Every structure is written in structure tokens, then in C-alpha cells.
UniProtKB/TrEMBL annotation:
InterPro entries: PtdIno-glycan_biosynth_class_S. The chain crosses the membrane at residues 20-38. Its main location: endoplasmic reticulum. It is a multi-pass membrane protein. The keyword Methyltransferase does not apply. This is GPI transamidase component PIG-S isoform X2.
Amino acid sequence: MIQDKSINYDLNMDEKYRVYASMSFAILLLGVGMPLWWHTTTVPRVMLPYTGIDELSQLDIRITTKITVAALSVNRAELLAREIKQTFANADIAKLMQVLSEWILHDKSLALTKNTLAEPTLYNLDEENRRRFPASLTYDVLITLVNPDPEKQKVIWDLKTVTKEYMQPFLDELSVLSNFSIKSQWLYLLPLDVNPRRIPDSSPSRRHFALRESILPQLVTPLEKKLASQVSLHPCINLVVYMVPCDNAPLHIYTHSGHRSRVDSNMEAFLSPRWGGVVLINPPLEVCENAREDEMVTIIPEETAIVGTLLAQLRLLLGIPETKSINGVTVVPLVGLKSRDWEIDSLLRYRTVEQLTSAKLTLQSLARLLKEISNIVITDVVGTRIKTALELVYESAEHLRRGNLEYSFVLSKEAFIISEAAFLIQHFWHFFTFQKIKSEYNFKLI
């Protein structure tokens, strides 16, 4: 009897301990486990200004241009201002509008730049935009002199000095736009990858060689393989000077209509959009005629003509177009290597509109992505960059409307940089990949 009571007592105690253990486990699970699970599995997402980003679609980019008259005295400034007003008052208003539109503001090209970035399937780039390099913080400029036959011709040219004394000062004037790194190199034993056509003529050599304009892109391919410009971290502007050997000289480019692109010139040149320019230098005719068989000839390039052509190509590739002829209007010739102030202002407007539009599209794409995929982590760093870029876009557009072009350009550049950094930040994509894998794993478990 006593033994039965002891057994019942032990059973009651075991039952009570099991209840206590179950209650303790439940309390531990609900009080510690659930909060810990919730904390470790919650996707951190910083609040973003989605409303402000959506309103970017209605952002109206207006450009105000200021005209400043600088003089040594107030009287002189007032006199100049009166003369300018009188000149404009007596001028043909249609011609003034044409000068402002085609030479200074480039309003049609600006509008096309903006529309093409926003809706690339509806708009096609014009010649200027197709040729111009896209916006970048840094450009590499690579000047290459090619001697395809060093055993038969010797080229005497101080390429390093030319680069330093002519090209560098020109690029320094554009330092407000981007950083430029300029380099030079020599290449040997690099013949043309095409066979020019031999054409008889009445010259002393009784012939010349012709390259059709349609095959010029084929010349770029072998050059690009040897230039090593593709290893650059930044967009590379290639400027190539090709010394034509006597065996293939004189070499001339023929247009689609069958005429020579340059008449009475010892030099030919062409551009490859968003890649660079090539200058073909023919040796002097008398040098090739007086050369004996298997004798090396010495070529001294005409420095002024070559540098002028390279600078003209560089201007076009950077976005400074050639001024179209307008009857009754003349342009003051360039002094030295400097660009005109209104040409630099035109570039600033191009870059500002391009960078503002790119930053706006990047923010909108990023906002759509974050809305559609709920398990993407939005860290404080990404959130801060998105908010900062959005503020800079609105601030830059406001300064552009007020006519503060240079400051607006600086703000647009910062907005462009920060928006790209927010989209491509390494940790952002790291967390995205991790969350994607985790969600797929949880789905399989369920």
C-alpha cells in the first residue's frame, strides 16, 4: 500500500515537471525565439522618397543664358551695352534667332539628347550626338604615330613635345568638364588591312591610290587591336597619325559621290564616332621620287597641319560642332589653342542636360526595382545616396533655370555620380543575391 502511494506521487511529480518544461519552452520560444527569428529574417529597408522620384517625370529643364559685358570702366561697359543693343535692334531677328539656335544654344540638339536618353526607341541620335563621346568623369586621350615600314622610312617627329605643347593646353581649357589624361606612343609594322585601288593620273608618279569612304571603318579594326586602348578604365579618345609609305603613296580618300575628299592636300583624315580620328600623312612626292631602291627615306611631318587636324577632330569628338555657314554672319577666328567661351558654355549645357537626364532615369529605374522586389535590402548607405542624388537633381535644375550654368553643371555631375553609385554599390548587390538565395531556400522548405 505504501509502495502504491509512492508510485502515484512520482507520477504526479513527473506530470507536473512535464507541464513546467512545456510552459518554459513555450515562454522561451515566444519571448526569445520569435523576436530573434523576426529580427534575423527581417529585410532592412530604409524609407525612400518615392513621391519625389515619381515627380521627376514632370521635371521641366529650363535653360537661362546670361550675357555679361566686361570692361575696364563703367562708362566703357555702358557704351558697349548700348552698341550691342543698337546692333541687335537693327539686325534681322530671324538671323539672330538662327545664330542663337545653331551656333550658341544648339537647342534642337539639346532637346534630342534629352529625348533620346529618356525614350531611345522613339528618337534617333543626330550626327553630332552619334559622334560625341558620352559624359564621363575622366577621359583618356591616346595619340599614336604609326610607321608601318620602319625599314624603308624614318619619321622624325617629337611626339612627346607636340603632345605637351599643343594638346595638353587645349585640354586644360576643358578641365571644368572632365579630367583628361593624355598619352602618346609609337607603333611599327602595322600595315593597312585593306588594299587601296591604284588609279592612273597625270602626276609625275603617274598614279595614286584611292580608299573608298565606305571601307574606312575597316581601317579602325586592326588599329584598335594594337592600340591597347581597351585596357583603359575610362573612355579612350584615339587620335592616330598614320605615315603612308612611298609604295602606297599618295593615298587619298574618295567620297561616296566619287570625288576626292581633299584636293591639293598631302593629308587625309576621317573620324570614327565615339572612337577617335585617323590622319593619313603622305610623304612629300619629291622624297619618294629621289629615293633609291631599298634606300631608307626620311620623313619630317608638317607639324602645324597635323596638330590643327588633330585638334579639330578632338573638338568634334568632345562635342564642339563646326559652325554652319550663315549668310551675313562671321565668326571671330580662334586665338591660339583656346576654345571660344560660348563653345565651352555649349558643352556645359550638353553635359548638364545629359547628366541630369541620366541621374533622373537611374533613380526612377532604381525606385521601380525596389518597389517590385520586396526582399531587396535597402541599406542606410543606399538610402542616403538616393536621397542626396534626388536633392541634387532638383537643385541643379533650379540653378540651370536661374542661369548659373557652371554651378548647375557641378551639381548635375554630383547627382550623376551618386545615383550611379547607389545603383551599382557592391553591398547592395551582395545583399540582393543573399536574400534571393534565402527566399528560394525557404520556398523549397515550405
